Request: fold
Amino acid sequence: MPTDESKSTSLSIVEGLARPTEITARFRNGSILLDRLLRRMEVCPSGCWLWTGSCNNKGYGTIRFEGVTYTVHKIAWELLVGELPPEIRLDHVECLIKNCFNPDHLEPVDDKTNNRRNQGWTETTSGVWLCQNLHPVEGHNAMRYYKNRVQCRTCHNDRRRAAHNRKSTRH
Reply:
């Protein structure tokens, strides 16, 4: 449970942020919601604002408000930064902690970028995506599979080869 000292620190951090002139129309009682966020916020030395309330099965903080369950990082973004278009996702780029809701640790990205980052890919300065093993994932090496997802063909073939070798050594 957050202490009185961490609550006052939380308030001073949030008051320092540039808030939109009016809280998004979706949240008529936005100030009530912001107070609820602050009561469940623990500030870490790393700058993370950790949600101490309930989390969903993927580890993201959740809050129920006016009969609807929302993810905390998205609510914090909309209350403190501004509204997000429906096709944009928030990616935890600074800390990779799912229950962190500090807007400075979040980056708005499209689905394609978010999914690639979740697979452990990185983007080079030239715009080429690299898999976890630093193979370029483009052209022939970009392999489509289930529901039009993309994976690195070289890594896929290496996994298949290793599985085949394990099977053949058992006999």
